[in-house]
């Protein structure tokens, strides 16, 4: 995407966020700068005092661009669709270099701009992403019960179940599921639904009621064999709960933003007494879902084991001696495996003291407990065994030890200091 097209998408996002019928209390789109990563650099809008390296950029003549200061500068290393501190301001960032202009880009900008607002309103309410690698994505019982919750929310979005009825069912189903989970996970899920569900609701300002069928379809797909269970699911479930609250709870947006509020807590306040748990479990066919998920989980594990068995030869990067301090990846394209492992399907970037690992496209197996990264051996990769600095297209390290791996692969051990 070029700069004029990106500015047009930015202007459309700003108009959507300022729509008088759908304003979130206190959200001012103009309060946070926006940085758009383009082939020519980072297009920085609305920043009063950019850091060194940014130069003023004139607004394109006759183009659709929002008012405000505009600068162009270097793209920060590892920039993701997220927010970051730049020049003393919280900046919403979006990677648009390979994105086509249109509603998808507009929604992405709105999504990240809302995250900047969330960080302002509740700085301590972010998703504890360091826990994601341990989420029980392969827990068949959790997925079966979550699928029942998803079916309840999808029926509401499709108009076949009323808001009050859905709220009572969902509250009962969730109470059963949470009783089966480790006590740490309800708080994790609440943070994910609040953050990502809230931003998904903000995205709906772009396309309005047209999002409902897509969210319903996503909910009916998610949690099948653990698909998206650790993170992606909470975009759709959090947003659907928000739409439930819109029908049941006056002033729900202000209450959503209040300190300590969670989507589930608001649902309990809005929906009244939950239905009898046994009756709800029967209505949603949870016994059949449990059997389905037991078989699906076993099939998923066989599939992943087969995929990993094909990685011969492989490249293994051991980072335990200099563990990562920053992470970047697409949370919608990863699978959480048992034992603190994650299989990344998209862009993956990790950095630690003296090293950076950066691949534009997976698969990459990250094992946080073992402190290693594994991927199929890149075509044409040839290394010399030994110690020292390392500079590869996918890995830069100030100190590393290179050795032959199994079956013709390579093992690179990142070290803290050169020897």
Fraction of residues in H or I helices? 40-55%
N-to-C series of helices and strands: HEEEEEEHHHHHHHHHHEEEEEEEEEEE
Annotation field: number of helices: 11
Terminal-residue CA separation: 45 Å
Shape: flat
Low-confidence stretches: none
Number of domains: 3
Largest sheet: 11 strands, mixed
Quaternary state of this entry equals single chain
pLDDT averaged over residues: 91
Rg calculated over all Cα atoms: 23 Å
Structural class estimated from helices and strands: alpha+beta
Q: Give a count of the beta strands, DSSP E runs of length 2 or more.
A: 17
Give a nutshell description of this structure.
With 419 residues, the protein is of the alpha+beta class. The chain has helices at residues 3-17, 103-121, 140-158, 163-180, 184-207, 211-221, 233-248, 252-257, 263-271, 277-283, 286-309, and strands at residues 34-38, 41-45, 55-56, 70-73, 82-86, 89-95, 314-318, 326-329, 334-336, 341-344, 348-352, 355-359, 364-367, 372-376, 386-391, 395-404, 410-414. Strand 5 and strand 6 (89-95) form a beta hairpin.
Overview of the structural elements:
By secondary structure, the protein is of the alpha+beta class. The protein has 3 domains: 3-121, no CATH class; 129-291, no CATH class; 310-414, no CATH class. 40% of the residues lie in helices and 20% in strands. The chain contains 11 helices and 17 strands. A hairpin with a 4-residue loop joins strand 9 (334-336) and strand 10 (341-344). It is flat and about 65 Å long. 43% of the residues are buried.
């Amino acid at each position: 995407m070029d700069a004029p097209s990106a500015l047009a998408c930015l202007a459309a996002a700003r108009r959507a966020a300022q729509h008088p019928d759908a304003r979130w209390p206190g959200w001012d789109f103009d309060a946070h700068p926006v940085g758009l990563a383009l082939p020519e650099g980072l297009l920085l809008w609305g920043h009063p005092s950019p850091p060194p390296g940014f130069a003023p950029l004139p607004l394109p003549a006759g183009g659709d661009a929002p008012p405000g200061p505009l600068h162009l500068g270097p793209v920060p290393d590892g920039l993701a669709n997220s927010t970051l501190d730049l020049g003393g301001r919280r900046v919403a960032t979006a990677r648009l270099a390979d994105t086509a202009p249109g509603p998808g880009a507009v929604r992405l900008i709105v999504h990240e701009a809302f995250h900047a607002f969330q960080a302002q309103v509740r700085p301590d309410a972010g998703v504890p992403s360091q826990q994601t690698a341990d989420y029980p994505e392969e827990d068949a019982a959790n997925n079966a019960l979550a699928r029942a919750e998803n079916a309840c929310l999808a029926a509401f979005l499709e108009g076949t179940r009323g808001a009050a009825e859905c709220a009572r069912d969902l509250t009962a189903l969730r109470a059963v599921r949470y009783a089966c989970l480790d006590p740490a996970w309800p708080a994790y899920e609440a943070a994910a639904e609040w953050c990502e569900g809230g931003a998904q609701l903000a995205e709906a300002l772009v396309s309005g009621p047209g999002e409902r069928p897509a969210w319903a379809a996503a909910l009916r797909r998610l949690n099948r064999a653990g698909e998206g269970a650790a993170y992606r699911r909470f975009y759709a479930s959090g947003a659907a709960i928000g739409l439930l609250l819109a029908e049941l709870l006056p002033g729900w947006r202000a209450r959503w933003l209040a300190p300590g509020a969670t989507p589930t807590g608001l649902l309990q306040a809005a929906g009244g007494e939950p239905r009898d748990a046994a009756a709800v479990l029967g209505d949603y066919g949870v016994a059949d879902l449990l059997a389905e998920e037991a078989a699906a989980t076993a099939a998923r594990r066989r599939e992943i084991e087969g995929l990993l068995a094909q990685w011969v030869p492989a490249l293994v990067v051991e980072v335990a001696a200099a563990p990562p301090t920053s992470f970047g990846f697409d949370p919608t394209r990863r699978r959480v495996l048992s034992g603190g492992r994650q299989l990344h399907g998209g862009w993956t970037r990790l950095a630690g003291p003296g090293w950076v690992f950066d691949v534009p496209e997976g698969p990459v197996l990250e094992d946080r407990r073992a402190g290693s990264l594994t991927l199929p051996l890149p075509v044409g990769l040839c290394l010399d065994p030994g110690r020292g600095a390392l500079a590869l297209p996918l890995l830069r390290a100030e100190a590393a030890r290179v050795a032959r791996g199994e079956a013709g692969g390579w093992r690179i051990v990142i070290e803290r200091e050169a020897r």
